[in-house]
Amino acid sequence: MSEILSSNLTYLKPSETVAISAETKRRQALGEDIVDLSVGEPDFDTPKAAAEAGIAAIQKGYTRYPPNIGIPELRAAVARNLSLMSGGRALNPDQIVISSGSKQSIFNACFSLFGPKDKVLIPSPAWVSYPQIVHLCRAEPVAVPGDPEWGLKVSVKDLERKYDKLVKGLILCSPCNPTGATYTATEIKAIAGWARDHGVWIIADEIYRRIYYGNGPAPSLLDLPDEYLEKVVLIYGAAKAYAMTGWRIGVAYAPMPVAKAMAALQSQTTTGANHPAQWAAATAFVDEAVERDVQKMVAAFHLRRDRVVERFRQEAPGVEFVEPTGAFYFFFRVDGVTPGHDCTGTVFCEQVMAAGVAMVPGAAFGDDHWVRMSYAASDKDLDTALERLFGLIRRLGARAA
Ligand code: PMP
Description:
Layout: H1 16-29, E1 35-36, H2 48-59, H3 72-85, E2 96-99, H4 102-113, E3 119-124, H5 129-136, E4 140-145, H6 156-162, E5 167-173, H7 185-198, E6 201-205, E7 232-237, E8 250-253, H8 256-267, H9 275-284, H10 288-315, E9 321-322, E10 329-333, H11 345-354, E11 357-358, E12 360-361, E13 370-374, H12 379-400
Parallel strand pairs: 1-11, 3-4, 3-5, 5-6, 6-7
Antiparallel strand pairs: 2-8, 7-8, 9-10, 10-13, 12-13
Helix pairs in contact: 2-9, 3-9, 4-5, 4-8, 10-12
């Protein structure tokens, strides 16, 4: 293959999380009993008012090309939504670009800002697509290992250690996929200050901002004064908190020249995001009934988080994990599960798949000592999965002993 394909794809690997989820669906279709905890997708339906707005948009004939930067109604709705979450800060809708999912927003931001010889710092473990996207820009991703004593988050010291003059960007994900850890307001301010002082761009992936188990939405770069935001592209979207993964609506809020470049880029690639889906999202971001649905979903994720944490403490007391404060992932360490044999995440996930549960090895996120489990699943599925998981942990422990 390598002689056919261009060097643009030298580093390209298909997304491991998408691949595991596809393999799980294939096995389920063959009749295998597998609980899928691999995928980063809410198990809830899209809130009714948002879905109906999408249907109405089709019926009203909003089926032609949209403005490539996004319809003004959606950009205004996003500005209002983000402003409400950030203490009333004013956001200029002209700086908001709508794309086909926040994955495309991140791609557009990176492609507009980073190129050959640039380095981009990525706190690790990290979402699978960040290093891949940076490679597609022909820039160099540089992993910054997070501190295991600190929910695998990075500090300014960790960033400083990996910094040199070629570093042009940092991709910061909070609440974090895969760990569920959330940076506090103080930590965000320190990192933003460090980036500003070094002239480093921050791509702040806040797609999980609403799925937070503290008070209100998670702390954000948008909570900081303007002087911190001159080199920040904020990423947000409808997929996760609004249970709209399939509608493919992503949001970027960027300084004007970058927003313009991102819009121009997509005018030459996708022409913009699905038109009726933009109307659905425009309702989702401001509708009061949708807001109540979001609150109910977040409350359900919170209960599931508590249940998973509690059961791990009781039934797998030796297993180290990051206590999640946001998103819907639980990240646990498996090398201690088989004392003396250092089990890897990859081996563990093969075995847990054989026991009837799909999860993602930490290798996909840059550290194979760990495994990621999504708890965006029904209580029943979660209970079945935990029984199978703890059964396997006990068996592996007994075999190793
Ligand atoms: N960022 C993170 C951290 C994610 O986990 C995901 C989805 N798994 C995305 C971005 C992309 O989301 P979207 O569906 O909006 O493209």
